[in-house]
Amino acid sequence: MKAKFEVKYLDITWYDKNTVVSVTESFIPLKLEFEDTLKHFTCHTVIYPKTDGVKHGQLAFRALTKSSTAPYFERADGQRIPLKKVLDKDTGKTWWVEADVWLKDNKRWAGKSHRTAGNIKAYLSGQICQIVIGSSEFTAEQLNRYLSDFKSDLWELILDENSYVTGKAKKVQEGGISEESIQLVNNILSHAQNILKKPKSELREIQTLKPRKLVRPVNRTFMELATKGERKFLTSRATEPSYNVPENRYVLFALQRIHKILKQLVTISKSKVNRLENTVTKLNERLEAFSDVKQIDEELVLKDLKRMQSLSNAVDITNGLHKQLESINNNKPRQSTTYLWYLKLSKKTEDGSFFAGVKTNPNAPWFEYESVKETVILKFGNGSENYSPLFEPYFEYEVQANLANFSGISQRDTPYHTYTLLDLTSIKVIGGVGLQKRHDKYLAAKQQVDLIRNSGWRKQLTSQEKLEQDREKRSVQNQLETYSNQHLSVKLVYEQLEPKLHKFKVLLNQIEKLGVKPSSTFPNSMTFVQNIDYQAVHSGYKRIREQTNLTDEDLLLSLEKVEDIGLINMPLLYERWCLLQMIKVLVQNYHYQPTDDWKRRLLKIISTGRHSESMGFSNEVLKRDLKLRYEPVLANGRTPDFVMDVNFERKNGERFTKRFVMDAKFYSNGILKNNGGISSVVKHLYHEKNYSENGANAVFVLHPAKAAIEEKVSPQLWGQDSYLGELAMFDWDSSSRQLYHQYGAICANPILRLRYLDEFQRMIGMFLQYGIEENSLGGRPDDVESMNFCIACGSHQLTRKDTNTGNQRSAWYECDECKHFTVYNHCYSCNTRLIKNGDYWSYHSQMPMEPLNIKCPACESLL
């Protein structure tokens, strides 16, 4: 359903209680989403109690269609609160605001909705809008950090074309500006200073007092003689030079534009200096952290040990099977008559059957191949395939089941007996070789834990672990060298540009003091032909725009408009900040080429909040086309913040498309807790809102909350604040792990973490490397079927290495650029693909007691 109203923040200047002086609208309206079940619209906003001294906007409503009913608020107790009408004389728009208290000192109306977190309903244009107001602990300084980062990132993406266009003829430094451009700035500054020494002017007639003998009379002169008689000074005609001529007006305009562009280049360079400095610092920390001794996470080790004990206990296993069986039978038609059977399972076949032994009397011998030399198979009948996951090889079970028996002779003249399971009402683990092995492994792990505990939870790396660590160490050293060189280059650019900024500012002030007013109209004057200084400023302005990719006037005006964005609506600003981080990862880190019109499309999203706007990216070498859409409408009518559709070609030439859905939630810890924690937020989006489109899409939440992960499941550093679906974490996803890496949440916060962009890179890299693949292998090779790339630097230049393990299906690759090492393997328990990307970039969870080995996300095998 389409809303017949819009919600914005307004900055209203009041003359008195009833007189409006001016109205300033927020940059874009709040997002409205229709809730089908509740039959009303919902919008979210946030109040900031810790931003004292900051001027706050006022929540306002405007009907988009004619309505005879005045809008009002309704509180939880049913009380109606009328809204005050505000007419914007400049635009003619009529707004409605809450006017609860008149603040005499501040000359403005305030409402309770501005000061109190909670829910409130607004009734307008025959529709209902529930406003969800959260309270955030972010300070004004922290909010401004988001704003400044957002603006800097936007200018950087627009100006720094070298980040995604390769093979440019001119030499471009890492600061996003060429040496030629730096020289051009110096040249413009020099010629502008020459203009200031002798600016073009014209004489304009004025009237001034002069000595009697020098007077050139005007009408006023004769009036003074007639009324005041003899005087030493009289009004006279005179002239003075005026510098406010078309040539100077245009020069001032051009210099102001150059100053704005230069200011952004300095800001970008400074931002890059800080970012690269932080990157170098973090890489040095990673390098120094490498050691032959690894600190072990005590909490996760004990958690795993407890789980191993439970998995080797027949009673605990049986209790778990009962819950799964109950869930299966709840969705199954009425069962047939069942009988007591005993099953002894051995090897599992490719079609999901088991070689088995059967009997109906617990004291009787097993009817199995070892005793009768005839093949005995347990199969699952049509409609009973869901029972298969309940059974494991080399376990013995007591079941209440309906088993259909069929005997025959195979093509090899070997008798066989097939038992087909049709119905199952009870299951119990009674033993088996598999259970005993589990118990033995548990005892061995318990012994190992005791040794690690006695050593202060520190573990000496094995020779294989040292080898893998050395590979990652070499990659970090390569990255450190690259980023250190980039840091020096960017710092040099900043040091060259920053002093020019002050000189330009001084120059502009001096020209303005001459009374010159800027004008964008280029004058048809010979001055720009005959005067080399005027000519140099004009041509330099055009060239600087060309070299910074700002020849498009609309593009430059849109960027200038973005500079006016304020802190009125942080959730929307956070969405757009997240969008920029995604583009940076795709363009700068993974080398995807954006379409020609991507800048206009991006600025439309930023400045207008246009829905369903998309931007295209491609990587020809990897044979991938990617479309990133903002607020698209899914087939089910839902509107997530971001959808990334990846169309890719496999190595066999087949093409497929996979979808990745992301939703930005500017939640503080308090707001997140009020929404039921990260578990409820993820479940709400994946299942209830069905952003997954019935399990077809991966769905991830982007948030800035530090304490979102209440109980971490992965020992990696990122596991403290982010969850990548690597293991079961929530109560609603523990029964089945077929959705591994299909939902999660990352902490995207530039204030909390210096390398916050790595969170985006790890998440997007996971989807592009693992999420687009069919990872249930069934005996297929461990290598991916799409084109390989390096998750650490995005390079496609990889060298396949010889493997030295017994797994003939595995594949090893080393990146030719950054030396990052990637191992493609599989889980020996469930045959799921596993990709080892080293300690830092792995998105699978690591084994707490074996820090460089990973857990299977599908079966989470420990035994």
Task: Tell me about this structure.
It comes from Shewanella woodyi (strain ATCC 51908 / MS32). Keywords: Coiled coil. This is EstP. There is one protein chain. The protein is α+β, with helices and mostly antiparallel strands and 863 residues long. Among the domains are: 131 residues, no CATH class; 41 residues, no CATH class; 148 residues, OB fold (Dihydrolipoamide Acetyltransferase, E2P) (Beta Barrel); 284 residues, no CATH class. Helix content is 35%, strand content 26%. It contains 19 helices and 35 strands. The strands form 9 sheets. Strands 23-24-25-26-27-28-29 form a 7-stranded mixed sheet, sandwiched between helices. Strands 3-4-13-12-6-7 form a 6-stranded mixed sheet. A hairpin with a 4-residue loop joins strand 10 and strand 11. Helix 2 packs parallel to helix 14 and helix 3 runs parallel beside helix 10. The longest helix is centred in the middle third of the chain and has 51 residues. The radius of gyration is 36 Å and the shape is elongated. The two termini are 52 Å apart.
Content-based structural category:
alpha+beta
Largest sheet features: 7 strands, mixed
β-strand number: 35
Q: What's the number of helices?
A: 19
Work out the strand percent: 25-35%
Strand order of the largest sheet: 23-24-25-26-27-28-29
* Overall spatial form: elongated
Q: What is the rounded Rg? A: 36 Å
What is the distance, rounded to the nearest whole angstrom, between the alpha carbons of the first and last residues?
Answer: 52 Å
> Which assembly state applies to the chains in this document?
single chain
Mean pLDDT: 87
As residue ranges, the low-confidence spans are: 163-175
Q: Helical proportion? A: 25-40%
